[in-house]
Sequence to fold (78 residues):
Amino acid sequence: MPFLLWRTGWHPILQIVTFLLEEWSWNVFPSTKVSSFVACAVYAAVLGGVWWNWGEEEGYHVEQGIVGNRDERPVDDK
Fold:
């Protein structure tokens, strides 16, 4: 989970809160509707965060020829 939270690119405080919510939801025994909802919501949010941050690491878009806005087409210098 820490690696996935790091890959979301979220602020570190939000990463810590998300991790604590996930830990709390797994430590509730017996599980309740609230703890189950929190667990599912945390995993959905982390999945979405990783999905939208994919390829945003420094230099990726430059290497692929994508410059500026994502809607712009890459410039071919041939």
